Amino acid sequence: MSKVIIVTGASSGIGKSTALQLIKEGHTVYGVARRLEKMQDIVTAGGKALAMDVTNQSQVKSVIQEILSIEQRIDVLINNAGFAIWGAVEDTSYEDAKRQFEVNIFGLAEVTKAVLPTMRKQKSGKIINISSIGGKIYSPLGAWYHATKHALEGWSDCLRLEVSQFGIDVVIVEPGAIKTEFGDVLNENFSNSENGPYADLALTMKKVTENAYKDGNYSTPDVIGNVISKAIKARKPKTRYSAGKMAAQTLFFRQWFSDKAFDKTIMRMIKNIEKQG
């Protein structure tokens, strides 16, 4: 059955790939992102594209209303928009940290709040939040990014309990290493700590990231699109799905090993990278 679906962050990566896949499956898909010019292939494929910054509350409301005026319903919201800043806690400015939460949490929340009244009236709907295995693990220089993804996990769990009475499902998707613009942006953001007391760690973590996004060390975005499609089709979707390179292994290790064991593994990996030069 064809559904009306909104995909945020549809200008690249997981968002764009998912939007294109869902269009092929026969759904009415609205891709929304700040960069309208980057979504023309979605329009060409038969979808629709609208410019929207998730941190602009008035824009969020007007775009959702525009979609509702045309479709009269919203069946699925895929909250995919997000980004990452990378750097030591001590080196990260208040403005950068605040922006990280505004996009990954507060903006996501505003889009969700904008669609909930319609879903409640329908007595149906699915909200799919794109988290990360980073919502379950942690790494040096990733405090603010990991904080938003850990927050999204808990926020989604609470929302699921609140809206289940209205027939609305809340699903979390936790990607592993996926080839998107994410890796490039991470490397740019290491500049926050490339000078000063954390410079050596920043250089090493930059190498770790570069290695993680080499050919063969990542999955393509369609892997996540397939999971999202599965959740949409499911009458009773799981609360969490994980997919992508190293997702299952990493989450298994984090679940069954202690914090200290995980700390040692992370730091051992960093030291090995340092030795390789």
From TrEMBL:
<dbReference type="InterPro" id="IPR002347">
    <property type="entry name" value="SDR_fam"/>
</dbReference>
<dbReference type="Pfam" id="PF00106">
    <property type="entry name" value="adh_short"/>
</dbReference>
<keyword id="KW-0560">Oxidoreductase</keyword>
<dbReference type="GO" id="GO:0004316">
    <property type="term" value="F:3-oxoacyl-[acyl-carrier-protein] reductase (NADPH) activity"/>
</dbReference>
<dbReference type="InterPro" id="IPR036291">
    <property type="entry name" value="NAD(P)-bd_dom_sf"/>
</dbReference>
<protein>
    <submittedName>
        <fullName>Short chain dehydrogenase</fullName>
        <ecNumber>1.1.1.100</ecNumber>
    </submittedName>
</protein>
<dbReference type="InterPro" id="IPR051911">
    <property type="entry name" value="SDR_oxidoreductase"/>
</dbReference>
<comment type="similarity">
    <text>Belongs to the short-chain dehydrogenases/reductases (SDR) family.</text>
</comment>
